[in-house]
Amino acid sequence: MGYQLSKEKMESIFKTLQETHDIYAPVVKKGDGTFSEVDVVRYDKVTSLDEIEWNKKSDYSFKEALLSINETLFYFTEDETTVPKGPTKDLLIFLRACDMHALKRLDQIYLDNKFGDFYYQRVRARAKFCLMGCEHSCDSGYCVAMGTNKADDYDLYLKLDGDKALVDAKNEDFVAIFNEESKLDVTPDYVTENKQKVSIPKNLSKATKDNPIWEEYGSRCIGCGRCNFVCPTCTCFTMQDIFYKDNPKVGERRRVWASCQIDGYSQIAGGFEFRKSQADRIRFKVMHKHYDFEKRFGYSMCVGCGRCDDVCPEYISHAAILNRLAKEEG
Amino acid sequence: MSLDINTKKAKKHAWRISKERGIGASRIRVPGGYLDAEVLGMVQKIAREYGNGYVHLTTRQGFEIEGIHLEDMDKVNELLQPIIEKVGINQNPEDKDNANGYSASGTRNVSACIGNNVCPFANYNTSELARRIDKEIFPNDLHFKVACTGCANDCAKVRMHDFGIIGMTMPQYDPDRCISCNACVKGCTSLSVSALRMENYKIVRDTEKCIGCGVCVTKCPTRAWTRSEKKYYKLTIMGRTGKKNPRLGKDFLVWADEENIVKIIKNTYKFVEEYISPNAPARKEHIGYIIDRVGFEKFKEFALKDVELMPETIMNNNVYWEGIHFDNKH
Predict the structure, then answer these.
(1) CB-defined contacts A:B, below 8 A
(2) What's the pTM?
């Protein structure tokens, strides 16, 4: 159901919502970018609409609101373990269409992949999503090519237009909140064309591993893992057992984001590493996003948000790789 | 026709009396080495119309327009006026009104590396600080050399100066964003001073060793490392070139702030006025020699007047220089 209300009223609803919700949205972190006097846009808890960055695509995706970078799975003493408590409030996460589609990929991996993940599940069950429309295409995204430019399964859509707020509520909880506001048909803004054109390779196969493109890009990659950490669909983690220094019989087990591009990711006991070269690692990442995942679940993992292309310090473009593969592999 | 030129006045107005009789060169200093490209065309015009068509880029980031007939000095000074205004050189009002060029002598152009406008390593806007210091200390006859460099790489070679300002950042670590990839540890070890190590999957920074270069921040793929909001500087003092005892400047203040550095430089002018050798040729004596003569305590007494250092600033109470001695060989 669509509504129109004043921004002021929306702000007061936003405040009230915080009694029951932790609200996460992209915010500008001043000076926290890689270089001096460069900002970064990433997710954080917000308390007001004005804290939200509405225009610039976030450098880091929403996934950290659902999946902590470091998550303690349990604390252990000599004979007991304790699982930390889950969220005490519901979550409301602001995100764009590409990220709504990424959510489907996260769910696929953490909920619908033979068994559900306890930790993801308990957060996910309390999470609601507020779509931020895209009036214009960002520079690097190719959501149209990936079919992720439009999202319908949001709980809430919110657009600020001067001193007005336009809302579309789908979740019953939100419909109840907005019910007294004046009704208006509200359709989310979405883009139908991107600046970044991408042809999706349709004929990837096991033979694609022999394409010399991997060596070429591998020689340029420095294995920093930024592409994975900004990606809204990368879900890999590693385990760390921490023994407290004061008393090593007590500690905690954490799961921590991992990157298939960084040394050690494919290392097994005894030291053997399956993918030692950056060429192998890039091949794995691209093929996983566009071939392996698709073979398993029937759709591509990549949502075309373009964040990996924005962040790569070596200017390696996932979009360019896809275009090359489409041309060379068909 | 014989020339009657006041060479002393000319030299005090940034003219060089060259080795060739009747020929001089016009020197245009560029504070912080940063200028509107339009000036290049203006310099070109003077070089072509009045010089020999050639320009030397000076070691202190200026232009020296060669081959100008000394009788054309006034005409060239007139053409210099818009350049002086455009690059922001402090000028005496009477020089400005009469288009007499600008006064220049002992205190040298404050030079700067390219800084954080462009360079990924730089921790501050070097030209901006150079221009600020320029405004505070120019014009002045005393021999002072000041330079600003963005990071501990010291591309501006500030340690060859009386005052060297090296950009620092106090790295801020958020363990919750750290994924133990070791990129910062590797970066610090290979590019800097090995101040980082991993303990229990998290990073420990050796604060004694850390030089605030910011490499950890640039290497971090998750924004676990960010720059401090406050900008910090290292102030190196009394480096010099020359015939007697060339030496590198040594650290006086570490983790210092801009205000106090500017104060110290200005205070040092008073110190020099008080203690400069009466025999100094043209009242030029490197400050370091004066300190060597009257003692570091005396220097500090002057330099630290009205200076209130921040709690985190480390001051070296005694500074001992080395260098090469040609004046006192044993």
Answers:
(1) 74
(2) 0.94
